[in-house]
Write a structure and sequence with these properties.
Two copies of one chain form a homodimer. Chain A is an alpha+beta fold. Chain A has two domains: 163 residues, NADH Oxidase (3-Layer(aba) Sandwich); 43 residues, no CATH class. In chain A, 46% of the residues lie in helices and 13% in strands. The first copy, chain A, has a four-stranded antiparallel beta sheet, with helices on both faces. The first copy, chain A, is globular and about 55 Å long. Chain A starts with a helix and ends in a 5-residue tail after the last helix. At the A-B interface, helix 1, helix 2, strand 1, helix 5 and helix 6 of A face helix 1, helix 2, strand 1, helix 5 and helix 6 of B.
Chain lengths: 241, 241
């Protein structure tokens, strides 16, 4: 087992941070690592907004469901899908609005994001992805002055951990991993996992939460579905055809 | 500089592989690393299809633009966005077709994919993402028997490298990285990068290709735009609202 594998296998979200600042050299290497990730056809269809201004942070916090760490974490990065830059440098061959281009930008941003997360973890930092950045995607875009064809995919809090939560066990491999063809999940395997996750929540919350995985997933869909996303993205110039 | 950072900063796509097989233990840890990545609200909205059957591989090769390594690489994984599983385990709260859910599945698959790539690289393997899996997305879905609400985001070839290509320099940091607000790119910075990439191509192809980055990006958009993607995804149950 090497350092990289150990880091990946010990990943958990960190939402509480010490006061220790992340210095510019560390931040620089995190951004370089993000940029070094694979990118579809070398398009590099993403941008990273590093939000340092406390007033912008405070507003982002309210837009992201009032999560304190969005305001207070030492670093807060917003990973954006970005085809605006490509459109600008491209000759007339570029056509806006293809769904394919949206996928490229989203995947590029996500891959870069995961490198940033892992780079940070390799330096002793921890962090958490903030999908809540899409709760108020239009307001966030206005606040960060994102031009057309740029959209916030997720935010990321980074800093030195002030907590040490347990690693949350993932679905059994046989449910996620298939050979040659997709296979429907095995009910008994799911049931065992559901029990396992329920035990985890009971232990972590001292009995306050006892959801199985299936129940937790169901609750998620009763909450925010971000029903505005399609219109928002189309207004931005994405997914028009 | 630690091992993880070094790995990330030395990433380049590998498209030629030795005959050395990837053993089951290595593959197992690659899948475990993929699964250990962050996942939106613990949904784990992705699946990985490991295509071992040579006949399926041969067909995939033709669907992916006849890239030999899709057929011949020791490992070929297809990372799929998957909300089918969630729909199955969810109570009646689940509603199909939200664009937000599509984004969650796509980002989950991409983040897991990047962990798999890096896990493989940490074991001395190399690989390449195959966006070409979307060239014939419907045919690929039929071939892999993907149910509704599962779609192939990208493929990934993995194996022991039989080539040692140069690392391709990314856009200057100041073009991708912004503080507090999005900033439009600086023409002079882009021009210097364009020249740099042209020099890289000239060197790598012995003068046959001399595109700048802007030219290479423009050419990309004259090729496959995968115009079928929106209809394909809607037929699968995604991006309906």
């Amino acid at each position: 087992m090497n350092q990289t594998l150990e880091l990946m296998l010990s990943h958990r979200s960190i939402r509480k941070f010490t006061d220790q600042l992340v210095n510019e050299r560390e931040l620089d290497i995190i951004i370089r690592a993000a940029q070094a990730a694979a990118t579809s056809s070398f398009l590099q269809a993403y941008s990273i907004i590093d939000v340092k201004n406390p007033e912008i942070r405070a507003k982002l916090r309210t837009f992201c469901g009032d999560q304190e760490y969005v305001e207070k974490s030492p670093i807060f990065l917003v990973f954006c899908g970005d085809t605006h830059r490509i459109k600008n440098v491209c000759d007339s061959s570029y056509e806006s609005g293809w769904t394919e281009t949206f996928i490229i930008a989203t995947v590029d941003a996500a891959i870069a994001g995961q490198n940033a997360m892992l780079a940070a973890e390799s330096l002793g930092l921890g962090g958490v992805y903030i999908g809540g950045i899409r709760n108020h995607a239009q307001e966030v875009s206005d606040l960060l002055k994102l031009p057309e064809e740029v959209y916030p995919v997720f935010g990321m809090c980074l800093g030195y951990p002030a907590q040490d939560p347990e690693v949350k066990e993932r679905l059994p491999k046989e449910i996620v991993y298939h050979v040659d063809h997709y296979t429907e999940l095995d009910e008994a395997t799911l049931e065992a996992y559901d029990t396992h996750i329920s035990d985890y929540y009971i232990k972590r919350t001292k009995g306050k939460i006892k959801d199985t995985w299936s129940e937790a997933v169901s609750k998620k869909f009763k909450q925010e579905k971000r029903e505005h996303m399609l219109k928002f993205l189309q207004d931005r110039g994405f997914i028009k055809k």
